[in-house]
Amino acid sequence: MDIGKRLYEEAVNLINKRYPTGYGGAAAMYTSSGKILTSVAPETINSSTELCIETGAILEAHKLNENITHTICVVRENEHSDFMILTPCGICQERLFYWGSNVKAAVSNADNSITFKTLEEIQPHYWRKVYKK
């Protein structure tokens, strides 16, 4: 099974387990050592303290000193609706750029197929390009 399908299935399985009814969302990330890290968004009382669905897996990668190579974020409105793939928001893209512009992120599209683009493709005018390494 290819990485995209594995990540999609991990995210869907986590949604079904963690959120058997109602809204649900989960992220799954693949690392260069072959690990799959998953996460959900924490439920908060104060909406100003919310974090993205991907944040937990990103933090786990940092904790384990793993390099993220692929990421997918999957949501559904309720247990009767279709699963949808969400492109990482700008904040998560910024977090993922830590591992370089070749990190592949699943992106939203009309047919909801599993399609990956590099961060370079998603953000061709990334601000850090002005700084020489």
TrEMBL record:
Q: Name one GO molecular function term.
A: catalytic activity
Q: Which SUPFAM superfamilies match?
A: Cytidine deaminase-like
InterPro entries named in the record: Cytidine_deaminase-like
Q: What is this protein called?
A: Blasticidin S deaminase, putative
